[in-house]
Design brief:
Blueprint: H1 15-30, H2 34-61, H3 66-94, H4 99-103, H5 108-117, H6 126-144, E1 148-150, E2 153-155, H7 161-164, H8 169-185, H9 187-207, H10 213-220, H11 228-257, H12 282-296, H13 300-310, E3 313-316, E4 326-330, E5 335-342, H14 347-364, H15 378-391, H16 405-435, H17 441-455, H18 465-468, H19 477-481, H20 487-505, H21 507-520, H22 526-532, H23 543-556
Parallel strand pairs: 3-5
Antiparallel strand pairs: 1-2, 4-5
Helix pairs in contact: 1-2, 1-3, 2-3, 3-5, 3-6, 6-9, 9-10, 11-16, 11-23, 12-13, 14-15, 14-21, 15-20, 15-21, 16-17, 16-20, 20-21, 20-23
GO molecular function: metal ion binding; metalloendopeptidase activity
Organism: Komagataeibacter xylinus
Keywords: Hydrolase, Metal-binding, Metalloprotease, Protease, Zinc
Length: 557
């Protein structure tokens, strides 16, 4: 049985102690003890990553805590120092005089990842990396500090979701108004934060010898099997095949509702009868989820029971808590942790099943021999999360109010399709921004608005000043904190929907392929993991068109 989460405590690593431990790895290499050196190197990294993950989680759980912020600041300062040691040892292992000895204890894919890693760091950018982490924390804290008033209540940004999905159009409009009023008020700070980040990242790239941040970003994401040209073709496929379908869906919804114009505040109301709601609050949902995973068979149910019983979940929204949802893990413990903000909408089900996919994959691969294999690169990791969203469909009636299962499945499919144009819009925006880092804030807003009109031509903000002027992107935390990550969701969704198509004909076969994929962890790069699961690459011509064709047929049925 895993250790209870509340009992977790990892020693704060000191620089001198870390230097000593990393030095022991070098000594072992000097002695020709490659296996021992690689084993110790892996242990040190697992210890450090476990501590670092807990520090980041504690800060996300309470961004107002001085102690959590102090720990986060210490970790931000330590990160580049640790990276410097890791890169030195990775380079030494890659250049070891006896490559056969290294190949016996380090997998070829790990070596491939390390060859990428060593091109992303130099001691000259250590201070810039620390500053990047600090700015990221500032963005997180700024959004977590939001307090907006609606219906006589003060809520945070996550708490606006029920109002944004209200069947009362005036309430939805008010939710949009107060949401964007917060961003408009903080726009100068948000612009400055992002401007600092862009120039910081561009400066790091040029210090490392790159022409722009874009190639460095791809390497930091450990993308070893595709590049910007492949992603650009995928964006074109989305525009060609998905945008027209979503446009038709949106227009049909407007006609059904009797609206002459469908405004941005109408888009969250996907179901004209009202979006299906969760079957109760946190405790009820967790009980229903246990039944759902038990019925799916295999070890999903027992694994989720371990998470519940040992406290590896934090799903309740509260003041001071960072927004969004994520899954993290502690490599020395072998247990993942799910963080989210339940708000009483269908989003609770989406984010829970999504993050549960990440958690299950990490747990299935927990015994793989090296830390580099425990997680796939994020493009493949998002297949594991998004596929589980679809594979739970046969049992999702447990998670929604009685009689709303079919409506939920339809809504989930529509929202998944609608995500693709937005996802590639975010990605295209970042390519434009980092290709021209000296753009003014106003120019960046103009670029966003132009791309939004290209990929989401139906969007109408009804005159709300901030998003109408191109400020919608400031609410997307990935743009600030995890540049170039967002396309991973779109690529993975193309693969996850293939699991959905397969499950409609052969659910046992689809589940087996899914479990096998999760167990592989990060043992292969994205395109090879996709192929190993019997899926077509999103970069292959026709893949997305086939997925859209199936979805359109179901929606038209």
């Amino acid at each position: 049985m895993p250790r209870p989460f509340d009992s977790l405590a990892f020693p704060r690593p000191a620089r001198d102690a870390l230097a000593l431990r990393f030095g022991q790895v070098s000594t072992l290499l000097d002695q020709g003890r490659v296996a021992d050196a690689a084993g110790l190197f892996d242990t040190i990294r697992r210890d450090y990553e476990s501590w670092s993950a807990l520090v980041d989680l504690r800060f996300a759980q309470d961004t107002t805590s001085p102690a959590a912020k102090a720990d986060r600041d210490y970790a931000d300062g330590l990160g580049p120092y640790v990276t410097a040691h890791e890169v030195t040892l990775k380079r030494r292992l890659l250049e070891y005089p006896d490559p056969t000895a290294v190949a016996q204890v380090v997998t070829p894919h790990t070596l491939e990842l390390w060859r990428t890693d060593i091109t992303t760091f130099d001691p000259r950018i250590a201070d810039a990396l620390e500053e990047e982490a600090r700015l990221s924390g500032e963005y997180t804290a700024l959004l977590a500090s939001a307090r907006v008033e609606i219906d006589g209540r003060q809520v945070n940004l996550s708490g606006l979701a029920p109002y944004a999905e209200s069947t009362d159009r005036a309430v939805r409009q008010q939710a949009e108004q107060v949401r964007w009023a917060f961003f408009a008020k903080n726009a100068p700070r948000l612009d400055t934060l992002f401007d600092d980040m862009v120039h910081l990242r561009d400066g790091m790239a040029r210090t490392l010898g790159y022409d722009s941040y874009i190639p460095l970003a791809y390497r930091r994401m450990r993308r070893v099997d595709y590049g910007p040209a492949d992603v650009a073709r995928f964006r074109d496929d989305v525009r060609t095949h998905v945008v027209p379908l979503v446009h038709d869906i949106v227009q049909k919804r407007a006609t059904t509702m009797g609206w002459e114009v469908l405004y941005s505040w109408d888009e969250p109301l996907i179901d004209p009868l009202g979006n299906p709601r969760p079957a109760g609050g946190h405790d009820a949902l967790m009980a229903h989820a246990q039944t759902m995973f038990d019925r799916m068979g295999g070890d999903l149910g027992p694994f989720f029971a371990q998470m519940r019983e040992n406290g590896y979940l934090d799903l309740v929204n509260r003041p001071g808590k960072a927004g969004g949802g994520f899954c993290t893990s502690f490599p020395t413990v072998g247990m993942p942790f799910i963080f989210a903000n339940f708000n009483g909408t269908q989003h609770d089900i989406n984010v829970f099943t999504h993050e549960m996919g990440h958690a299950y994959q990490n747990w299935k691969s927990r015994k793989l021999p090296a830390i580099d294999l425990l997680w796939p690169t994020m493009d493949a990791a998002e297949i594991n999360s998004m596929a589980l969203e679809f594979l739970t469909w046969p049992h999702i009636d447990l998670m929604v109010e009685p009689g709303q299962g079919a409506r939920y499945r339809r809504m989930h499919l529509i929202s998944s399709l609608a995500f693709l144009p937005y996802g590639v819009c975010v990605d295209h925006f970042q390519h434009e921004v980092y290709a021209r880092p000296d753009m003014t804030p106003a120019e960046r807003h103009a670029v966003w608005r132009e791309l939004e009109q290209r990929y989401l031509p139906w969007r109408d903000y009804g005159g709300l000043p901030h998003p109408t002027m191109g400020g919608r992107w400031q609410a997307q935390g990935h743009i600030y904190r995890s540049p170039f990550y967002y396309i991973d969701y779109a690529l993975a969704l193309c693969c996850a929907m293939q699991f959905w198509i397969r499950s409609r004909e052969d659910m046992p076969g689809a589940l087996k392929a899914y479990v096998d994929l999760c167990a592989q962890g990060g043992s292969q790069p994205f395109t090879r993991l996709v192929r190993s699961a019997g899926l077509q690459s999103p970069f292959k011509p026709g893949t997305l068109a086939d997925v859209v064709r199936t979805a359109r047929a179901l929606l038209d049925d």
